[in-house]
Amino acid sequence: MPDSRGRFGVYGGRYVPETLVPALDELEGEFKKAWAEPEFRAEFSRILAEFVGRPTPITEFRRLSERTGLHVVAKREDLNHTGAHKINNALGQVLLARRMGKTRIIAETGAGQHGVATATVCALFGLKCDVYMGEEDTHRQQLNVFRMRLMGARVIPVTSGTKTLKDALNEAMRDWVTHVRDTHYIIGTAAGPHPYPEMVREFQRVIGDESRQQYLDRYGRSPDVGIACVGGGSNAIGFFAGWLADPSVQLIGVEAGGLGVSTGQHAAPLTAGSPGVLHGSMSYLMQDEHGQIVGTHSVSAGLDYPGVGAEHAYLKDSGRVHYEAATDEEALQAFHDVARLEGVIPAFESAHAFAPILKRGRFAPGTRVLVNLSGRGDKDMEMAAKLFSLQSQDPAGA
Amino acid sequence: MVRPTLDSTFRLLADRNEAALILFITGGDPSLEDLPTLIEDLVEAGADALEIGLPFSDPIADGPSIQASSQRALDRGVTPRAVLEAIGRARVDVPVVVMGYLNPMLQMGFEAFADRCQAVGVSGVIVCDLIPEEAGEWVQIAQSRGLATVFLAAPTSAADRLDAVANASCGFVYAVARTGVTGSQAEQANESERLVADLRVRTSTPIAVGFGISTPDHVAAVSRFADGAIVGSALVDRLANSGADRKDVLDWVRQLKAATHRG
Question: pLDDT tier at B189 (50, 70, 90 boundaries)?
Fold first, then answer.
């Protein structure tokens, strides 16, 4: 998976303006070649170790385990340099861009984590970097805007459409169509046209491969359940990649349920959307009856996206992975509980992955759960301060 | 509604030593009710064929003018079905092509979409995010209804891509004048001339050039080597700014048409 045309079953493919096809062909060829070279993989691994700080550990969350009656272990992608899993993919793609002789990098970003990761690797290699970010998100995630600018990237606020991640992606695609000859587009998620879904999965599968090795070494068995949050789905697909072949592990993807799936105010295309074509590939989408993409809502800017990576669509239909949604409220409760009980502040995105284990009766007592903690919550503290009244000494919601 | 085919229109114009003036407007902007009359006015002023845009929420191949225009249409509640119905009401005897993105067609269903196109006298369909390799199912359905599917060739396209586009395209081949979205800066005539020449050796299908063509001079330059010149964003902008009185816009269209005469 995927097949030679980038298909995961009926999903995926390449639905793009003709202008981009040569660039996608070049990228596909270069990726296949590089990924088969031990030298390329060695360099990727070396930089992941020396610069990013891999391997990230797995941590047993004892107090959360006590509270829930489960056995909870977290894969700590929050401990990566720049604070999230996004850097794994940004690094892999920037190495490819250098091989292809591209001198300029563009990226889209929602929560700003992918933008920061891209700005970081561009600083590391001295490449010009422009990041498209929805205007609404530049306000929601202002600290990340500052981080990107400090590292020399230009942050371009996107004012079209809903002014969030989807529109940042539109704008980055338009930039790429115009400057395709010297520019590489580092898509931050497992969506987009072939070869992005496959390539991003491969650059992120280090999460799954590492966690599998670590879990088996420590516990001598597989977990019963593996959980990850799903926006576009890059942390989830990388995490699942290590476990898909192990039928004893039940895999769960948690989408952004926003104000509740029944309200329509959410970002859960796998849970409540239908198949269609957006941003270059066929997958589940949030759309109206006329095929127009509809607005999404999530407290988490990084999950606020109406589409999802094509492989997730395939895994949903095949039944191998179960997808469900956690509401803003459930995610914020998880955010609070993980911070309070474990001394770890997850990103709002990653907090969604903890929501199922806090649901009483969701899993049998003693179930062994491995959660991918995809990023840390520093970027979310300003909003958390408002939501949890942290200006006073005795925060609400305890 | 039976209108002339793209083939016969291009043949007729070639005999008269003219390039085709192909005008793009967004279906439902400035107004859906007015669309049939607008089409009739543009044809009266000299359009040899029309491209009617089906508004989409995420038009990744379009620049700011057409994006904004699509959004205005969507904000007004315009649907693909309503645009097609309005096309059916236009009393013109030139080919009408619809241009849009794949997802609205998918959601209507390819067969239902093709049936509607056929019923309202649409001659061809351009899908901005559909390349020949992904188009098999649609092309079969379109062909069975006599609809031409026009594909785009880009200046970045290598020989194998040009082969694929030249072979797959019906009605005409849409040569993209430069890399970029619709409506951005002009020039680069050399690049598009080379692209048209590269396509000529591959196909006898007419070739029309679009993207960034915004003045009678551009149209004249393109008409020297291509079978058609496509004007979109510049017209959409003028219509957006013109209000109810379109006289100036139509005068400008007359100038564009005059520029297609090679003699």
Answer: low
Bridge partners of residue B50, in order along the sequence: B23, B96
Collapsing DSSP states into helix, strand and coil, what is residue A283? strand
Q: What is the ipTM of this complex?
A: 0.94
Tell me phi and psi for residue A376, to 5 degrees. -100, 160
Tokens of A18: 């003709």
Among residues B29, B48, B51, B237, the one annotated as catalytic is B51
* Residue B84 CA neighbour count, 13 Å, CB half: 23
Tokens coding B229: 């010149």
- Identify whether B191 is part of a domain: yes
Amino acid making up residue B63: G
- Rounded mean pLDDT, A62-81: 98
Q: Alpha-carbon distance A331 to A227, whole Å?
A: 14
Q: Whole-model pTM?
A: 0.95
Contact A22 B181 (CB under 8 A): no
Would the pLDDT of A103 be above 90?
yes
Pairing of strands B124-127, A225-229: unpaired
The total number of structural domains that make up chain B: 1
- Give me A36's structure tokens: 């088969």
Q: What is the pLDDT of residues A149-206, one digit of tens each?
A: 999 999 999 998 888 889 999 999 999 988 988 999 999 999 999 999 999 999 999 9
Q: Residues B18, B41, B48, B62: which is the catalytic one? A: B62
Q: How many CB atoms lie within 10 A of CB A394?
A: 7
Q: What is the pLDDT of residue A398?
A: 47
Does residue B224 lie in a domain region?
A: yes
Q: Do A189 and A169 meet the contact criterion of CB atoms below 8 Å apart?
A: no
* CATH value at residue B44: 3.20.20.70
Asked whether the beta carbons of A344 and A360 are under 8 A apart, the reply is no
Q: Which residue has the tokens 């005469």?
A: B261
Give CA angle at A332 (A77, A88), nearest 5°: 20
Interface test with A, best of B165, B176, B179, B185 (most A CBs within 10 A): B179
What residue numbers bound the domain in which B112 lies?
6-258
Residue A84: DSSP 8-state: B
Question: For residue B177, is it within any domain?
Answer: yes
Whether B196 is covered by a domain: the verdict is yes
